[in-house]
Amino acid sequence: MSDVVRSVYYDQSEILRGILQLHCPAGFDCDITYGNGSFYKDVPAPRLKFDIDPQQTAVEKACSTKLPLTNGSVSSVVFDPPFLTYIKQARAHDSIMARRFGGYWAYSELEDHYKKTLLESYRVLQPLGVLVFKCQDIIHNHKMYCTHASVIEWAIAIGFRVKDLYVLPAKNRMPMPTKNATQKHARIFHSYFLVFERDKKVLDSTKVIEYHSNTVTEETDMSKCPVCGESQFKSLLGMNCPKGHLNAPPQPKEKPMTEQATAAPAIPIDKLVQIYIKIRDKKAEIKKAFDAEYAKLDEKLSTVATELKSRAQSEGVEGFKSESGTVYLSETMKVTGSDWGAFGQFLKTHDPLEFMEKRISSTAIKAYMKETDGQLPPGVSIFKEIEARVRRAGEK
Ligand SMILES: C[S@@+](CC[C@H](N)C(=O)[O-])C[C@H]1O[C@@H](n2cnc3c(N)ncnc32)[C@H](O)[C@@H]1O
Fold first, then answer.
1. Which has the least CB within 10 A, 54, 243, 250, 324?
2. Domains of the chain
3. Which of ligand 1's atoms lies nearest the C-alpha of 78?
4. SS3 344
5. What pTM was computed for the model?
6. Given ligand 1 and candidates 33, 100, 383, which is best to mutate, with the most ligand atoms within 8 Å of its CB?
7. CA-based radius of gyration for the chain
8. pLDDT tens digit sequence for 116-150
9. What number does the ligand 1 atom closest to the CA of 34 have?
10. What is the DSSP string of 29-98?
11. Which ligand 1 atom is nearest residue 39's CA?
């Protein structure tokens, strides 16, 4: 590569090298959609690697919208999400399937994933940290979705500024879907590497950022929740009631992020409740039938497995090979605590992190926060999600 970094390269490694040279001279800190690591064929791999569906053992499973990282703990984030929508396999609205097949069903799902990840990247990045966001515009059903422009708009609304923009022309493209279709738009032959810089705001470890669908709310001075009167804690995106009350005070500085933000729900609440209950009942019915069928198959499978095990054991072998496959005996070990007091004593002289699973007790953290007026122990982050739940009339 020449000394002058250009905005267009035909090889993504050249773009990544340019970004490293100009914006991340110490190397990339964290890749949150690591995939098979193809970004790092010719440039050094990041310190932290995450993916929702890890393909390598060195990659930790995590959703880009909920990273196991503390506020302001990384200097750069690389994000290369799927960019296709209307992927058939995503039609079941099963997001894991959608991810596996590299796309989303509706554009709103892509938008939601991108916005939430922008927000999460903002949280984990240190002030003036760098976000590298790879994206591509798409055309579906004769409609142009100018994703790179939307990403810039969403990122700026959260507190990023655009630092650089690179274009990667595609080397190959799949043929047009319909042979004799009249072309209405230029065939998209390039993707973008957008480089953002986070603003200087410092979020201390007790701050929680919440994503409010389609809106980003700036800091306000309201200190009490209007519902319960509890002292609220301030986050970048507004005031948060420690009891999680939804009826947040009127947000004076609300900025719509998309046109959808102003669309009022037309369906009456009771109708929505009825629909909710109907879908939930249907789900329960399908699950019950599925569980029964599954249990029958499990039982049959276990009968066959028991027979194979006893044949191997009576012949004194570790396994067999047959035309259809291989059988091998494998040992699993289950560990349970039979005397927690004794084990607790043992842990006093041994490293508990070596002998225990690394999962933090949310009950203990909640109790600690209550005792310490919302403080968190060092090295712990919390994520809160608010969802609507429905209780059937007459149900307790
Ligand atoms: C375009 S591929 C990544 C390409 C990657 N840069 C590479 O070189 O392999 C998209 C990746 O995003 C991951 N992904 C999709 N949704 C995700 C999510 N919510 N959180 C984290 N990773 C996700 C997929 O598993 C996939 O590995």
1. 324
2. 12-174+184-198 (3.40.50.150)
3. 6
4. helix
5. 0.57
6. 33
7. 26
8. 999 999 999 999 999 999 999 998 777 899 999 99
9. 5
10. -EESS-TT-GGGSSSPPPSEEEESS-SSTTSEE-BTTB-S--TT-EEEEEE----B-S-GGGGG--HHHH
11. 8
